[in-house]
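Continuing the batch. This is chain 6 of the set; chains 1 through 5 are on the previous pages. Same settings as before, nothing changed between runs. Recording input and output for traceability.
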Amino acid sequence: PDESVHAAFLPQILSEFWQEGDRLTLLKEIYRVLPQNGRLLIAEQVQSRINWLTLGPWALTLKPAAYWTTLLNQAGFIVRKEVDLQGYILCIRAEKPTFAEAYQMALQFEFSGESTHERRL
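Output for chain 6:
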């Protein structure tokens, strides 16, 4: 059911879906079942020197760190924190936005915490 799960954890799961559309479909389904402020944690290997040394040419199949944050944003999530584990694995904590945050995202407003009036002074 909608909004029935408070957190989801995907340790090196998204990279197993080889088609871009399948990854986005999975993230959108997770988005559907999470309530506002519901958390999603992902851990994925990323393109890096250490992965090139340990994995060899297979490391060329890995996505860069920016790819994962962009994909999460496309699914509607807000990335709250990224932790790079020595270039080997990237851990990302993302959340389903509140109604106000989702509205700002839809209108592409940047939230800086200061009003327009304060910036003019």
